[in-house]
Specification:
Length: 212
């Protein structure tokens, strides 16, 4: 969840910057790697049109759910796709020119970016706008490191925080009301996830990567 929050906030920040240099009717979508809509934005000119569609956060742009669309095709072909209005199956999208592309970080597929317009005169700008948004997202400091940060559970973070306070295995077990063997198991998993060899190294990595 934390990763997706970083991902969506970065997207929305990038959209605000890019929109300052745009005029016309545009819709911007960001999905996860399964095509589920995480965040969206649009120009003021598109507001009424978008509100009349089923596009809401949580909508899955798979072919099974929405018919053929730019995001479903980008998922299918594992690459960027431009879709003309008549190539969409859903009647909601059959006036739209859409360009969708995969978003990667460190070789990992994070999701898909889609830029759409109903203005035929603007269709040639879609690819350039999508690439500009992608470039801006990547330019934000530490975004790739943040997205590739190992995921620790709340329990593991609590154990790690107590370790950083100098607590012993016995005192951690007492505070968290768990067995000492469970604490040791958590430590082992934490070390593996962070690539650490000791408690000191694990705490150092956690502090550097802002786990707490």
């Amino acid at each position: 969840m934390e990763r997706m929050n970083v991902w969506t906030s970065t997207f929305l920040e990038s959209i605000e910057v890019v929109k300052e240099h745009l005029s016309g009717e545009y819709l911007f979508l960001l999905t996860d790697d399964k095509g589920e809509l995480l965040a969206m934005d649009n120009s003021e000119e598109m507001k009424d049109l978008v509100e009349g569609t089923p596009i809401k956060v949580g909508l899955v742009f798979s072919r099974e759910n929405c018919g053929v669309n730019a995001i479903s095709e980008a998922m299918e072909h594992r690459g960027p796709v431009y879709l003309k209005p008549e190539e969409h199956e859903s009647p909601f999208f059959q006036n739209w020119h859409c360009y969708a592309m995969p978003m990667m970080a460190g070789g990992t597929l994070l999701g898909y970016l889609d830029v759409s317009t109903v203005d035929e005169e603007l269709k040639s700008e879609l690819i350039a706008i999508a690439k500009l948004i992608s470039m801006h997202m990547r330019s934000i400091p530490d975004i790739e490191n943040e997205m590739n940060k190992p995921v620790l559970t709340d329990r593991q973070i609590n154990v790690l925080r107590l370790i950083s306070e100098g607590q012993t295995v016995k005192s951690i077990a007492h505070k968290l009301k768990i067995k000492e063997s469970t604490v040791n198991h958590h430590k082992k998993v934490i070390f593996e996830k962070l690539g650490a060899q000791s408690s000191t190294e694990a705490v150092s990595i956690a502090a550097r990567r802002a786990y707490f």
